[in-house]
Amino acid sequence: MSEASISIEYAMEKASGPHFSGFRTPTATSVSSTTFSDANVPREPFVIGVSGGTASGKTTVCDMIIQQLHDHRVVLVNQDSFYRGLNSEELKRVHEYNFDHPDAFDTEQLLECIKKLKIGHSVQVPVYDFKLHRRSSDSFRQVNASDVIILEGILVFHDQRVRNLMNMKIFVDADADVRLARRIRRDTVERGRDVNSVLEQYAKFVKPAFDDFVLPSKKYADVIIPRGGDNHVAIDLIVQHIRTKLGQHDLCKIYPNVYVIQSTFQIRGMHTLIRDRDISKHDFVFYSDRLIRLVVEHGLGHLPFTEKQVVTPTATVYTGVDFCKKLCGVSIVRR
């Protein structure tokens, strides 16, 4: 694997962290870097934010992720659906309206929508007409709770409250000339605009808004994908990471009291060694014992304890802890 691929995968592993699927981060006093599931904590979907400049390929990236996650329920929520409808005065001067400014979106409604989806409720997403610049008054898009929620839009990283709802943040990067060409084609074909109006809007609103709001939000991204949908390596790594997280989620739903040790490169390396059919008997036993030792150490960390004082061989008093229960055995469940 190339150095770039490793850095992307490491960034993704750091991005979603142990808070996914109701996992709780260990306290500061915990020695182990592990996570565990609480049976009383509701399971939450994996929320992915996808941002980038206009026509950077965000929708293509989202579609590719959805296609590869065909064995899981995935829903796509577009920030464009939450444009505010223009009033009569704004419609008269529609060419002076900045659709790329944060104030053009109903962020409060977007927040409410994602929060409901995270707790398992269905929502009705508005349908926005880009030719009339209004929301449809009699139709909505029904979105049901799913394993993965993808929130896509140019300014989904701008508001901290929206960012805090995400488990992973992806920024799709593309050359400015490529984005402009795509925008001209999209707006003339799909939104009924002429080339001159598209270029005027781009120079007056789109480019300044990108520099002021979109580009600065790039720093919040956990993963940056150059070339958008053409970067198959990055998208494959993202999908692999999501599948890993969803697999942990399913395991915890089957076994509500299970404790999942967070995957590290050390653990993955030892799993790779013991699964190699060419490994020697000595190495197989050595690395298997090492893995079992990590499981036992993690199990001991969850036993209740009380303080206890003992006298050392040098006649000094040492204050330590005494386990309240004895460890009878450890069960290892393979997925």
TrEMBL record:
GO terms for biological process: CTP salvage; UMP salvage. InterPro entries: P-loop_NTPase, PRK/URK, PRTase-like, PRTase_dom, Uridine_kinase-like. Residues 47-233 form the Phosphoribulokinase/uridine kinase domain. The keyword Cytoplasm does not apply. GO terms for molecular function: ATP binding; cytidine kinase activity; GTP binding; uridine kinase activity. Its EC number is 2.7.1.48. Pfam families: PRK, UPRTase. Keywords: Allosteric enzyme, ATP-binding, GTP-binding, Kinase, Multifunctional enzyme, Nucleotide-binding, Transferase. CDD domains: UMPK (cd02023). It catalyses: cytidine + ATP = CMP + ADP + H(+); uridine + ATP = UMP + ADP + H(+). It comes from the Eukaryota. Pathway: Pyrimidine metabolism; CTP biosynthesis via salvage pathway; CTP from cytidine: step 1/3; Pyrimidine metabolism; UMP biosynthesis via salvage pathway; UMP from uridine: step 1/1. It is an enzyme of class 2 (transferase). Residues 263-334 form the Phosphoribosyltransferase domain. NCBIfam families: PRK05480.1, udk. PANTHER family: URIDINE KINASE. Belongs to the uridine kinase family. This is Uridine kinase. It comes from Gossypium raimondii (Peruvian cotton).
